[in-house]
TrEMBL record:
This is 4-deoxy-L-threo-5-hexosulose-uronate ketol-isomerase. The gene is kduI. Zn(2+) binds at H197, H199, E204, H246. It holds the Pfam family KduI. Catalyzes the isomerization of 5-dehydro-4-deoxy-D-glucuronate to 3-deoxy-D-glycero-2,5-hexodiulosonate. GO terms for biological process: D-galacturonate catabolic process; D-glucuronate catabolic process; pectin catabolic process. Its EC number is 5.3.1.17.
Length: 279
């Protein structure tokens, strides 16, 4: 498990491109037949990619979290961004197609991932996991694609028309602190989360997916008056500390998994910044 320590706004002005990418970009999450995990000290979030190809892959116990099993004192939201697959949690099997979400509550012991059509047209399943510490146990809950709380946002004239599907949130699937959903840009729209915002009480991580191989998203980060950017490819994630804006524009339409953990679960707890006020 890779570890990354927390950063502050004062670090941003002195960072070059390589350091920005090393601190905040998470590439190469999905490795054949493996669990590839990263621990960020921003709100003690763990993100992981699981790509079962030749057979089932079991979620291991990582020594960095000092627990006999991963979910001893953690919870997680998991979204399948690949082909059809299944997740088995303590003997209960959940069939997960592209875009489906599974919340796994504190106390789950055996978690196994598999692809159900690895050689098919859409290829193996690719499971994106976002985890945070939990002090309450909520039941493991499955949500099919499109069955969360759907919000239509944006305006085609501003190139940011998008469908936001909330899965794990205060009025949906219950959790201790994880909030998670999927946003899909409409055809012809490129901007996400514009106007940009921060939420000083939570860390957020974006995983961009369904982006063509030759396309990229230019992701904005940093304080509103001291922004930087990352050029992000398909199935790469960006860590957004609580003090950082998070917004982006793509060269093609795309989707992204957004997930947060921190002080509260209020989706609308954010501080917006007009683009004309950003630098």
């Amino acid at each position: 498990m890779e570890q990354r320590y927390a950063t502050s706004p004062e670090h941003i002005p002195g960072m070059d491109t390589n350091e920005l990418r090393d601190r905040y970009l998470v590439p190469g999450l999905f490795v054949d037949d493996d669990v590839n995990a990263l621990y960020t000290h921003h709100d003690r979030v763990v993100v992981a990619g699981v790509k079962p190809v030749t057979g089932p892959v079991k979620l291991p116990t990582f020594p960095e979290i000092v627990s006999p099993y991963f979910f001893e004192h953690r919870e997680a939201g998991i979204v399948n961004v690949g082909g059809p697959g299944a997740i088995t949690v303590d003997g209960t099997r959940y069939e997960t197609r592209h875009g489906a979400c599974l919340y796994v509550g504190r106390g789950a012991v055996d978690v196994v991932f598999e692809s159900t059509d690895a050689a098919g047209e859409t290829g193996p399943a690719r499971f994106y996991l976002f985890s945070a510490p939990a002090h309450t146990a909520y039941p493991t809950t499955f949500v099919a694609p499109g069955e969360g709380t759907v919000r239509e946002l944006g305006d085609p004239e501003q190139s940011n028309r998008r469908t936001l599907n909330q899965y794990i949130h205060e009025k949906g699937v219950r959790s201790c602190q994880v909030v998670m959903g999927v946003t899909t840009l409409h055809t012809g729209s490129m901007w996400n989360t514009m106007p940009a915002h921060t939420h000083a009480r939570r860390t957020e991580v974006y995983l961009y997916f369904d982006l063509p191989a030759d396309a990229r998203v230019v992701h904005l980060l940093g304080e509103p008056t001291e922004t930087r950017h990352l050029v992000v490819g398909n199935e790469e994630a960006v860590i957004s500390p609580s003090w950082s804006v998070h917004s982006g524009v793509g060269t093609a339409s795309y989707s992204f998994v957004w997930a947060m953990a921190g002080e509260n679960q209020s989706f609308d707890d954010m501080d917006g910044f007009a683009i004309a006020d950003m630098r």
